Every structure is written in structure tokens, then in C-alpha cells.
Amino acid sequence: MSKAVRIDRHGGPEELKIVDVEVGEPGPGEIRIRHKAVGLNFIDTYQRSGLYPFQMPLQLGMEASGVVEAVGEGVAHLKVGDRAAYASQPPGAYSELRVMPAKNVCKLPDAISFETGAAMMLKGLTTQYLLKKTLPAEGLQPGDFILFHAAAGGVGLIACQWAKALGLQLIGTAGSDAKCKLALEYGAAHAINYSTENFAARVKEITGGKGVKVVYDSVGKDTWEGSIDCLRPFGLLAVFGNGSGPVPPIGLGTLASKGSLYVTRPTLFTHIATRESTQAMADDLFAVVQSGAVKIPIDQRYALADVQQAHRDLEARKTTGCTILTL
Ligand code: NDP
Predict the structure, then answer these.
(1) What is the atom index within ligand 1 of the atom nearest the CA of 265?
(2) E strands of 189-285, at which residues?
(3) Atom nearest to 123 CA in ligand 1
(4) What is the ipTM of this complex?
(5) pLDDT, tens digit only, all 327 positions of the chain
(6) Which GO terms describe its cellular component (predicted)?
(7) Direct distance between the N- and C-terminal alpha carbons of the chain, in angstroms, rounded to an integer
(8) CB 241 near ligand 1, within 6 Å
(9) Nearest CA owner, ligand 1 atom 17
(10) With a 6 A CB cut-off, is 254 part of the ligand 1 pocket?
(11) Pocket test for ligand 1, best of 88, 121, 134, 155 (most atoms within 8 A of CB)
(12) 124 Cβ inside 6 Å of ligand 1
């Protein structure tokens, strides 16, 4: 048996219920993992609210760390007793114990704690593909300006550090002066409080009127128009989230009139579709974390039983950095 967080219908945080669930034996390609810590992600709120619809009932959670307890047929990269961490579909990480596909589960290096492993997989692998795999052609070069919204959040603070390590000039936005200060401490070259400042005008000022090569926009509805105005010709708008709501359809003519722009709507799950790509990206993440260039800030911890409050705080923009559920 395992305690788990389940919803029986889409809705607000009050729908999150702690239940007891039976956990069986892993089938082919699966493992059973006993969690040590669980990562909280903004995507969990979309799955709870129904912005991303699911069949009910649904056990939530996309990221965790733990110890492998049983291994199904055909799983070669994990064995019983391994320390492990993952970002993976289907949801189900908000639990003490679960059976799940092994494909996206990686051995966690001994030097990385369970809490760090639980906090960093989904957000760190996302940062990896955003900075290294999203821009086609020549990619990002040292010295390039990029704009990263919600820079003091979970993905945001990892991106500030990783961008700095790559020599990029990350301009971060955040919703308060305190959050802007945090983004600067974590390596942003510039920070803009987009609650009080016109971020597109400030980006033009910072870049000497040129604009940035890529805007990473996870805020969506409230920012996408301003984001387009921040791009240099041939620039890329990467919309990767819906913090304020989804982006409405963008007329293609806008992309022409603003300078032959590109738009993409990427998701981590295309990038980790195979075991090989998952492991290659995880190895890159483990290396940058072990080098000390990227630290994983766990700024909030909640007991599993307090998951409703965790969702309320995340949606109310009260959190910074990463959040974990402790077991
Ligand atoms: P964060 O810790 O970044 O929390 C979201 C932040 O968004 C808030 O703290 C807030 O920062 C900002 N925000 C702006 N407007 C709103 C609003 N109206 N309501 C709530 N928050 C708002 O979350 P995560 O690190 O978990 O995820 C960051 C984003 O990245 C999310 O949008 C998520 O969906 C997306 N994501 C996408 C992935 C993909 O592959 N496509 C994978 C992983 C994450 P502030 O107060 O500074 O504005």
C-alpha cells in the first residue's frame, strides 16, 4: 500500500485528496520505486485544473527521486537498490511508492542528494533542451542576449545559472523586486520587474535597440505580445508554458511584419521520448550540477499531506526556485 495524492475530478487545490492505493509488481519495461522526495511543478496545476485534461481518477506528479525496489522484465539500466530520479509521464509521482515505466528513470549519482534529484529532473531537463536543443541552425553563441520570463521560478533560477555558464546574457523577468534580485544573484545579467516596468522597452534599451535572439516565455497569455517585440529579426519565440493562461492563435502575418520571426511550442516529453535521449540529457544535467555551476535552490518544502497549500502557493506566485514534497 502507498499514500498517494489523487483527484477524482478537475478543479482547484481542494480536489487534491490523500488516498491509500495498492501497488503491485512491475510488468515488462517497468520498475517499482520507493520515493524519497517528490518535485512540485507548475504543470501539475494544469493537470489538476483541467487545462491539460486527463481521465479520472488521476494520481498527480511528474518528478521524484527514490530507491528502486523491483525491476520488471527487459529493464537493463536499473537494478534493485539503485538510487534513481526521474521526470516522466504518466503522472503519479505524488506518492510514497509506485510502479512506473523505467524509460525515463535515471540512476542518480551518489554526489546528488535525493531532495536535489527530486527537485531538478523536470526543471533541469527542460532548461537543458531550451538552452541547447531548441534554437535550430547555429544555436546560441556566447555573448548572445536571451530573454527568460519568470526567471526566479523553478525552471527560471536553473536557467539563470546554466545560461551564465554557457556565456549567454540572460535578461530575466520576475513579478517583484525581491524576485529580480534573486535572479541576478543566480546569474541573470539583467532583471526586469514586469509587474511595474514595460519589459519590451527595457529589453530594447539593454540590447541597444537590437532585441534578443530567443525569448523563453512560460507565462503565455500576459506576455507573448511583448515577447514578440523583444526579438531581433529572425529571432525565436519559444512558448513553453501557460503560467497566466494559454497563448491565443498567432497570425502568421505578425511574424513577417516583426522581422521573419520563428515560433515554437516545445515540450520536454518530445525530447525525452527515448531512453537514449533521456540519459544523454540527464548526463548533461548531472555534470553541470556536479560541477557546481548550477545549484538547485529548494526554497519550499511541504509534507505530502500539505499538497493543497503547496498548489495554492505556487499558483499565487508565492514561491521562488524549486519546491518539493517531503515523505
Ligand atoms: P515556477 O516556479 O516558475 O512558477 C511559475 C511562475 O510563473 C510564478 O512564480 C510567477 O513568477 C510566474 N507567473 C506569471 N504570471 C503568472 C500567473 N498569472 N499565475 C501564476 N504564475 C505566474 O514554475 P515551474 O518552474 O514549475 O515552471 C515554469 C514554467 O515552465 C511553467 O509555465 C511550466 O508550465 C513551464 N514548463 C514547461 C515545460 C515544457 O517542456 N514545455 C517543462 C517544465 C515547465 P513571477 O511572480 O515572477 O511572475
Answers:
(1) 41
(2) 190-193, 212-217, 231-239, 262-264
(3) 43
(4) 0.99
(5) 999 999 999 999 999 999 999 999 999 999 999 999 999 999 999 999 999 999 999 999 999 999 999 999 999 999 999 999 999 999 999 999 999 999 999 999 999 999 999 999 999 999 999 999 998 767 899 999 999 999 999 999 999 999 999 999 999 999 999 999 999 999 999 999 999 999 999 999 999 999 999 999 999 999 999 999 999 999 999 999 999 999 999 999 999 999 999 999 999 999 999 999 999 999 999 999 999 999 999 999 999 999 999 999 999 999 999 999 999
(6) cytosol
(7) 15
(8) yes
(9) 244
(10) no
(11) 155
(12) no
Measured in residues, the chain has a length of 327
User: Separation of 219 CA from ligand 1 center, angstroms?
Assistant: 6
Q: Does the 2-123+269-326 domain belong in CATH 3.40.50.2300?
A: no
Ligand 1 centroid – CA 280 distance (Å): 25
- Find the 150 Cα to ligand 1 centroid distance in Å: 6
What three-state secondary structure class fits 16? coil
3-state secondary structure of 1: coil
Q: Where are the domains of the chain?
A: 2-123+269-326, 135-265
Residue 97 is inside which H or E element, if any? strand 97-101
Q: Please say whether the beta carbons of 110 and 83 come within 8 A.
A: yes
The CATH superfamily holding the domain 135-265 is NAD(P)-binding Rossmann-like Domain (3.40.50.720)
Question: What are phi and psi for residue 197, nearest 5 degrees?
Answer: -120, 155
